[in-house]
Write a structure and sequence with these properties.
Shape: globular
Order of helices and strands: HHEHEEEEEEEHEEEEEHEEEEEEEEE
Strand content: over 45%
Number of domains: 1
Structural class: mainly beta
CATH class: Mainly Beta
Number of helices: 5
CATH architecture: Beta Barrel
CATH superfamily: Porin, LamB type
Largest sheet: 18 strands, antiparallel, barrel
Radius of gyration: 27 Å
Length: 452
């Protein structure tokens, strides 16, 4: 039955079967027995599978419960609005959401060595606001990546070409879940130029807002990106263009303001194979500068803040690393950003974050994680135009007993129970405190985290 199935499949696909290409003498179909046909089809199928059997699945997920000292659910979505942001004071014991992503990668290789990888990633973000025990929440499953890459061509086998929607040049600080560099979007690129040191790409981006629709369609940015690597150094540069942004804003707001329609940004990264002079671990340091669309929240991103002024500038410096010992592991990070507003010096903003996560291994597969975080957001003038105060400090301390599959700092899956103490100065967001009338609170919860 198996051989008969192969034979029928071959006849349906080919219509007319001749195996002349594989033999020195053409053989009429009528003279081929079913056994010969099945054998040849099996050989073809086995040969195809040998070349195309590489299929990979990758994923990330976190899920848990976060409650305050009164047993109330802590909400706030990805950026924990109204409570200390995990980007400022650390993510451990400070994530309110459930999130998962699943990536499928199919690899192909041709006889001449040309190869292609197809990537498809689904993701879903449950902000856990409405239903703790029903479904996936209100967010739909999204396609976060959908792209193809090809390489191994005879004219330059070291080059890789790609087209589609993808994560591109994303650089993350794990303990804060902060992407200081993220050029993700839909576009195309070439990687591996200049002896493998230069990558070029075009990536289309959109604003943070979803409703910037004009008569000619949604506003978007066009981003030209170059990345060059030399020894331990990486240099990124991006030119950004968003024609129509200023006209749209001035028309809808009845203003006459020089909103940004173009910009640029650059990033310089030093990658150290040791942990600040120590051999065991790694560390990075980076400096970024941006102008126009590349300033404020647009710094390090292909997306931009729609009300950025053309002459606004931003600067960011940061460092982080990991070291692992027999009993203790550490990951510290520090990031400073200064945004200069061309329209008003009172709106110049300083953002600072310092977080450290020590991990103590108690026994195999059981550790205690600690995390201390301190953040600051401040403007030249403490009050905005409405008279609201906006400068203040955030802080967090977390203890999380954890069981894990292995004892590495990066080892996952992990199951953890945690307790956190969070606080902020009274000037910060007085109307959005989790506990009415309080500037601090205790929190507790459980969380599972995995990546593969």
């Amino acid at each position: 039955m198996k051989r008969l199935g192969f034979g029928i499949m071959a006849l349906l696909l080919a219509g007319t079967v001749t195996m002349a290409a594989e033999t020195t003498t053409a053989t009429p179909v009528a003279s081929i027995t079913m056994e010969d046909l099945d054998k040849r089809v099996e050989e073809k199928v086995e040969n195809m599978l040998a070349k195309n059997d590489s299929f990979e699945i990758h994923g990330y997920a976190r899920a848990g419960v976060l409650m305050n000292q009164d047993g109330k659910q802590v909400t706030g979505g990805m950026f924990n609005d109204g409570t200390p942001s995990k980007n400022l004071v650390g993510r451990l014991g400070n994530e309110t959401d459930n999130y998962w992503e699943l990536e499928f990668v199919k690899k192909f290789t041709a006889d001449n060595g040309v190869w292609s990888n197809w990537h498809l990633m689904f993701a879903q973000h449950d902000q856990n606001r409405e239903r703790l025990n029903e479904g996936n929440g209100s967010e739909d499953v999204a396609v976060r990546q959908l792209y193809a890459e090809m390489g191994g061509f005879a004219w330059n086998p070291d080059l890789t070409y790609w087209v589609g929607k993808r994560f591109y040049n994303r650089q993350d600080i794990h303990v804060t879940d902060y992407y200081w560099n993220d050029y993700s979007g839909t576009g195309a690129g070439i990687q591996g130029l200049a002896d493998g040191n230069l990558d070029l790409a075009y990536v289309a981006g959109s604003s943070w807002q979803d409703d910037l629709l004009t008569g000619n369609g949604k506003l978007m940015s066009h981003n030209l990106i170059a990345t060059y690597r030399h020894n331990n150094w990486t240099f990124d540069g991006m030119a950004m263009f968003a024609d129509g942004n200023a006209d749209y804003l001035n028309e809808t707001k009845s203003n006459d303001i020089d909103y940004a329609e173009n910009g640029f940004q650059t990033t310089v990264t030093y990658n150290n194979s040791g942990f600040y002079g120590m051999e065991n671990g790694f560390s990075k340091a980076f400096f970024q500068a941006g102008y126009g669309l590349g300033s404020a929240s647009g710094l390090g991103h292909t997306q931009w803040n729609w009300e950025t002024k053309q002459k606004d500038t931003s600067y960011r410096v940061g460092t982080f690393g990991v070291t692992e010992g027999e009993k203790w592991s550490f990951m510290p990070q520090t990031v400073l950003q200064y945004d200069v507003s061309d329209a008003s010096s009172d709106d110049n903003k300083l953002t600072a974050s310092a977080v450290i996560r020590p991990v103590y291994k108690v026994v195999d597969n059981f550790s205690v994680q600690f995390e201390l975080g301190l953040g600051y957001e401040g403007y030249n003038k403490n009050e905005n135009t409405s008279g609201d105060k906006r400068n203040g400090m955030y802080y967090k301390a977390t203890v999380a007993p954890t069981i894990s599959l292995n004892d590495s700092f990066w080892g996952r899956p992990q199951l953890r129970v945690f307790g956190s103490y969070v606080g902020w100065t009274s000037d910060v967001a007085p109307d959005t405190k989790t506990v009415a009338g309080s500037d601090s609170e205790l929190r507790a919860g459980v969380q599972a985290e995995i990546w593969f």
